[in-house]
Amino acid sequence: MLKILSAALWLLFTGPVMASPPPKDIPKTVAFIFLADLAGNPLVENGAPVAVGTGFFVLVENDGGPGGWGYVVTAKHVLKDANGHFFKRVFLRVNHKAEGSGFIVLDLNDSRPQQNVFIHPDPTVDIAVIPALPDQNFDFLAIPTSMIKTKDQFRAGTIQPGSDVFFSGLFVPHYGEKRNVPIFRFGRVAMLTDDRVRWQEQGKPLEMVELSLLETMSFGGNSGSPVFFSQGIDRVPGAIVVGSDEITLAGVMRGNFNEPRVGGLLQTPNAVLPTYAQNVGIAAVTPGYLLREILYSSDLQKQREATPIIQPDAPAK
Length: 317
Prior knowledge:
By secondary structure, this protein is mainly beta. It has helices at residues 2-14, 151-156, 288-295, 298-305; strands spanning 30-35, 44-45, 48-49, 51-61, 68-74, 89-95, 101-107, 128-131, 143-144, 164-169, 183-192, 197-199, 207-209, 212-215, 226-231, 246-261, 266-267, 272-273, 276-287.
C-alpha cells in the first residue's frame, strides 16, 4: 500500500509520465527512397543522389509458424511524379551489416498482371505497399503487424490527445555520406477525430481525408516515415503499468499543415497580397489501421498465397 501511495503522490506532483526513449533498433526498420534518372540509375544533383522520402519495412506474420511476408511501405505521393503517375523506378538505400549502404532497385507497376504497388481502394489514403524486403546482407528489421492495430482495436485503446509520439525518417540536409542516418522527431497527439479533415496541397484540389494530427514538425523527406505511439507506465488511466513502454504504429507520415503568410501572392476580394506558407507545427499522419487494411486486402492475401514465406531477423521491439 505504501509503494502504491508513494507512486500516486509522485504522479500527482510531477505531472504526466514521459515515455522512455525509442527502442534502439527503430532506425533499422527505416530506409531512404531515391529517384532514378532517365537511364535508370540513381539521379544525381550537385554531386549527390537525390533522396525524396522515407520507407519502412513491415512483416505480415505467418499464422502457421515462424517467418512471414515482407513489404516496403511509404506514402503514395513519394512514389509519384508531378503529374500523379507512379515512377517507373526508384531506389531504396539500406545499410549493410558490415560497412556502408547499398541501393536496392524497385521497379514499380501499379497495374496487373505485373502489379507490385498496392494501394487502398479509397484514393485519399496516402499509402503505398510494395512486396519486397532486402536480403540478409543488409542490416534491417521489419515491423510486425502485431504492432499495427485494427480500427476497432485502436478505438478501444487508450491513445488520446497528449499521448506521446515519435517518428524516424529522412533528414534531407544530411542523410549520411556512407550509411543512412535517420533523424528522430518527437511530439504528442494533437487531434483524433472520426471526421475527415480538409487537406489541400499546392496546385491540387481539396480532399477530405482520414488523418491523425500530431503536434510535431514534418518537413520534406519525412513523408512515408513510420510514426509510433509510445505509451509509458501511465498508459492505463488510474493505474501504473510495470514493464516496458508499449510501442504501436500510429501510421504513415503524410506531411504538414501550412498557413499563408506575407511573402508570396494571394488573391483576396480587393487585392493581390504577397504571402508565403509557414509550417504551423501540426503534422498529418495516415492512420495505421488503413495500412493494415491494405496488408490484409484480398489482392495481397492472394499474393501471399503464391509467395514463399521468408524468415528475416527478429522484428523490432
